[in-house]
Amino acid sequence: MLVFILNAGSSSLKYQLMNPVNKETLAVGICERIGIDGALKHEYGDDKKLKIESDLPTHKEAIELVLKTLTEGEGKVIDSIDDIEAIGHRAVHGGEEFAGSVMVSEKVINKMKELIPLAPLHNPANIMGMEICQELMPGKPNVAVFDTAFHQTMPDYAYMYALPYDQYTKNGVRKYGFHGTSHFFVSNEAAKRLDKKHNTRIIVCHLGNGSSVSAVFDGKCIDTSMGLTPVQGLMMGTRAGDIGAGAIQYMMETEGWDIKEMLDVLNKKSGIVGISGKSSDLREVLEGMEAGDERCRLAVDMIAYRIKQYVGSYAAALDGVDALCFTGGIGENAAIIREKVCAGLDYMGLNIDPVKNNKRSGEARDISTNGSAGRIFVIPTNEEYVIANDTYKIVKGIE
């Protein structure tokens, strides 16, 4: 079964064509700068690459170009759009309405529209992608896979904020969490690698430009670091993460910022780029640290310290830890961050092996010492496979 996987952003569109049964990926790509000047980057076959410059005034033209590229010319991987059996969509925010992936219907789209205030940048683009695919590929099933769904198993005492209760009942103000498909995939892969098959206690650190940590007990999320929006939690590429409300008020008053300006600072000018003053890309910050830049050193230490704080608190919430997992661009590639996070965690039975940790590999691996009571894993995430597999199961009616 071939599934067309779509991740529609406000000005970009990522896609893959995958067979979830054998995990074969036929093509992967992205349309960038939609509405500006437009370009498609398409990868297929044995590391073949194709770039097409094209006017892409809207997402519709972008999806049309992707489908044409998949079926015609140099980048062709299928004979016809008819070869695509279903479309799986990344959907950012499902609120409390969606605790799992669902077949897209008018009712689902209307409910997602109601949730737009919770994800004003993402949900409109996700909905647009669904509606365009329904138009361009009529009759083919579309499935929505929500970033927030995996975290819907959190208990109320974990997801509630200590605000007036009517803010929850009237406005849905609570912790939702994101990166759910990644946390699901990695925690599931980690569980397979443990000798213990029940009551597993797994902490997943999804670390990239956006980062989050989750505590997973027996396959179910019991807590996660991101909140109502993705700005809460860890220090990230450009996001501040956890910060006291009083600091926000103080900055707004002293700088004369309105709420939009404040949110712009919290989401786009803080985190790694805000502290280092150099870049939101950790690779450049690590180069700066090695060259003696103190602000880069501070950024690296802050990243690791804040991850470590969450690991400690989630180990307490889980009453111990069987596996600590690292994934995402930083989690998979930054050995120094893993080293700093794991330093001193031997008291909870986690001992990192420095040789294994510094060995680069694109494969899932155990980087703990042989005598470590808990395991430390590096597991490359595969969110696209989760979307494709959920789509396959829903379309085929598989529980």
UniProtKB/TrEMBL annotation:
The keyword Metal-binding applies. ATP binds at residues 14, 206-210, 281-283, 329-333. InterPro entries: Ac/propionate_kinase, Aliphatic_acid_kin_short-chain, Aliphatic_acid_kinase_CS, ATPase_NBD. Substrate binds at residue 90. CDD domains: ASKHA_NBD_AcK_PK. Mg(2+) binds at residues 7, 383. GO terms for molecular function: acetate kinase activity; ATP binding; magnesium ion binding. Its main location: cytoplasm. It is found in: Cytoplasm. Its cofactor is Mg(2+); Mn(2+). Pathway: Metabolic intermediate biosynthesis; acetyl-CoA biosynthesis; acetyl-CoA from acetate: step 1/2. One of its GO terms (biological process) is acetyl-CoA biosynthetic process. Mg(2+). Can also accept Mn(2+). It is an enzyme of class 2 (transferase). The active site is at residue 147. PANTHER family: ACETATE KINASE, ACETATE KINASE-RELATED. Catalyzes the formation of acetyl phosphate from acetate and ATP. Can also catalyze the reverse reaction. HAMAP family: Acetate_kinase (MF_00020). This is Acetate kinase. It comes from Halarcobacter bivalviorum.
